[in-house]
Amino acid sequence: MEPIIARGDCFEVEERVHADERVHAAPDLGLVRETLAPKLRRGGYASVAIGLLDAYVNPAHERALARLLTSEVREIFVAFSSGIFSEFREYERASTTALSAYVQPVVER
Q: Which residues contact 36 (CB under 8 A, 6 or more apart)?
């Protein structure tokens, strides 16, 4: 079975929020703007799914990434896990968010 998101279409962002909401490392938004946004524009992506490890307790970084990508890549749909399924359990949040990002551009058309 082919995965919905190919491994080559997954991008990492260094970020860490502890389960008690403390921020250990914020994402480098400048780096995302310089590296990821151009890849998304060139790659012809219709959507992006954002899933950070403990975003269910502190969604600030996911929301910041979503705002940045929406402003930098205007034609792209952005789904973020804390806005789709803000519950404990990384796999469930990530898969639900990925499915939302997969179908939403089609539904909007």
A: 11, 13, 69
